[in-house]
Amino acid sequence: MSMLWRNWTAFIAVLATTLSILAVLSILQYETVLSRLIQERLAVVAETTASSFRSVINLGLPIASVRNAKEVLAWAEDIDPAVTSIQVFNPTGIIVHSTIANGREPIAKDTLIVQSLSADDRWDTENDSELQAGLTLRNLQGDRIGGILVSAANTDFKEKSRTMSFQIASAAAVIFVVFSLLALLMLRIKLGSAMHGLEKLERLSDEYSEDQKNSRLAETKAPFIADDGFLSSEIVELESKLDAAFRKFKSVRRIISEFSNHNQKVADVGQENTASLETAIAPAPETALANVFARSLSPWSAAIILGSALVLGLYAHNEVTRSLEPELAARTKVIGAVANRNIQRAVNAGVPLTNLVGAENYFSELLKHFPEVSYFGVATGRIVYEAGTRQNYIFAPAQSRKDVPTFPIIADGNQIGYIIVDINPDYFALQFRDMLLDFGVVVLVVMLLAFQIITVVMSRSLTAPFLQLQYLAGLQAAGDFSSVIVAKGLTAIDRLNNKLSEHAMRLHRAFTAATSHQSNNSELISLEKLGDRFKLRHGWPTQLKFSYLNDVRLPLFLFAAADQLPIAFLPIFTRAANNSLPWLDTGIVISLPIAGYLIAIVVGSLLVRPLTGKFGHRKLLLYAAAPTLLAHIGLYASTDVTEIVVFRMVTGLGYAFAVMACQDYVLRAVPKKDRNRSLGLFTAALFSGIFAGTALGGILADRLGQPSVFVVSAGLVLLSGTLTYRLLPTYTGKNVSAPIAHTSYLPPIWRPLGNPQFAALVFGIAVPANILLQAFISFLVALELNALGASTADTSRILMTYFLAIVFVGPAAPHFLERKLNPSQVGLLGAVLSAVSLCAVVIWPAQWSILVAVAGAGISHGLIRDPQVAAALEIAERDLVHLDSDIVLASLRAFERLGSIVGLLLIAFLSSYVGYLNAIAAIVVIVITGAAAFALTFYSNFFSSQSQRTEESQQADTD
């Protein structure tokens, strides 16, 4: 498959994923809004019915004693023709009044559970055949004495849902086809120069296809015009290397043939089977080619993805709005009919229309309960009562004008007035706010995924084979025929790689044959020297397999996303599970899955490098994926806190193995001079995955349910493992890159704490920052937002700002602060900023203040993350030279994680007794105290050291 088609296939897969997710979100949002409208319409009937029972309840009488209950229920049922039944039941679920003539089954147990768990007296539920709205009845003391359940058949709901699903799916398919063709055109234009360069490689492959070519190939080739964009200079360089490699091959072949006793022609020897060759991992010279291509394609890719999402979103919004308008009109009619009956009842009792006491308060209460209505009014030729805002501007809908049912008020057979009801024109926008926010989040995540995929596909289809060819050609041009590359493709690059490899195989075969048949000792010595010079040996050359950062980029992204999907609801999920540890404090029980996860990461981090040395990166990643996948499936089925803790610990261990093994792979995959840049790209891929998982987790939980998110996590882990199996090379034999020193299982991490400045850095900056991360971001944010009434999707959108801030601030901070502040000052600044940000929540508890605090914490973490490492290394190089820097860094990481575990459990314990806000205030105290201790210790030691050095200098001058 050519480069163009590979990239197009990858891109349309991303496009299909985007449109599929957005289509499903649109359909789910439509069903949510439609069912909510129907159930709230039923709630109007339930409220109307309840008003007739409250007078009896307030007298202390049981609801079964209402004598005219049958007439009341029949009157309420007539309000809405969609109502199929109204049932009044006592606290145990026994029905005492019903519009159903026969077969009064008790209220379903699941319905009673929904009623008991509802924080409000209004609640709703559904079953296979009905949508239902309920209202809890209470006496004057607030005790629950029963309820009212209003039901409507969901046949119409299901039919509308099927119709809308078909319309949106059809539109998504058409949009997919159109934008896929646009993507093909875009790729054809943007990759045109690269494909032109590949055409030149095709010509090179044809020119070098025969061994009989003379040594003056460079003079016979057509002149190369350096206008091929990305590959111009690389192809010019490759031509030079190939020409030198072919010349060197012919020269060595000729020399070996002169030593052959049988005068055998080397050219007659074919290529041997390469299946049994010893393999070795070699780092190709890192270039930014794949990233250059990806960055060039990304703006256009983003435009196509955004364009397709925008078109589908507009279509879905228009169709959904058009489909919901009849339901909204029907509900408005019910609301108007209820208001009309209540006004009419007062008029029938002889109260003059202009003397209705509390009419405007009544309408104001209705507006609170029914946000789709913006205005209520009573008119007699002039407005006598009103509440809300009248829709009388030029773009207002005509709901209270022509072709809208009126609600007349009758006295003595004559109309004396009428009720005006205006629909809120912004209602649909409010209903679709969440969907539009979810659209934006999904598109952002998909663009991050698209960048990763485009980079990997470009690397696998073009840049990696091209770099391998350059590497092998460079070796042979320098006279090194020790290695071969087995390419399985049919492109010009693959053919040239195989041609060069065939040359190395033939020279090794000829060298072996010549030395085995050589009887002259002097000539044998000359042959051995020739072999040493051109890296020939008895047997076969080494098969090279290359490792790149891009091998682990996509598996790492998916693994990190899978791990972070539950972060927005994990404390809520744990709180709802059965508590098998009743002897522990509730707050600690809720925090145990997070604490166990962190403990597993600490243990896993100590085991990764020894296990990598034993199994290799590829096997360790696969070994980590299998139990992690099973653990996510276990979390899906978990109903007990202990089960959640155990399975979450397994996922933490798998995460530690995956991240650390991928990082170690990157360190081995690239030359030392390129490590800083490659680690930066590694961190970007990791946090992109964390951001994507955090952003999507809440959306999926709101739409699919919290347990289903773990199934999605398992699927992502499976996909990550599959890509690891396909992308990472397998090898037997040596690693030609520079080895990375392995640390022991348990390095002496306590020894650096003897230095006061290092201890201040650990316990004053690093540990409080990680307590903030685990206790606030991972634990308290979800609980506090849930207490404030935020949805899980709202929580995930707020939490994603933390990781988004890290992604932007982490790389940018050094450029702005490097020359102004030293690492310790930057760390101190970050600590103070995080404390100030959290104060906003303590002073003004609200969703916006939590967003400010989360974003501030992300900015501060971005400031602290790298400077604390730099500060630790400065201390290691100045005061801890007797210890290896790896031990110093291992100590920093181990103690900050252990400290965060202790801090998390402490804050969780406090939250049970003093509340979430005071627990957040305790985090502020910890951060400020740590920062003050760090500043006092660090700078007192700094000035003391300066004074001591000054005295030593003066003493030396005196001597």
TrEMBL record:
SUPFAM superfamilies: MFS general substrate transporter. The keyword Transmembrane applies. Residues 548-948 form the Major facilitator superfamily (MFS) profile domain. Pfam families: MFS_1 (PF07690). InterPro entries: MFS, MFS_dom, MFS_trans_sf, MFS_Vesicular_Transporter. Keywords: Membrane, Transmembrane, Transmembrane helix, Transport. It is a multi-pass membrane protein. It is found in: Membrane. The keyword Transmembrane applies. The chain crosses the membrane at residues 164-187, 435-458, 554-574, 586-608, 620-639, 645-667, 679-701, 707-728, 758-783, 795-814, 826-844, 894-913, 919-939. Its main location: membrane. It comes from the Bacteria. PANTHER family: GH10249P. This is MFS transporter.
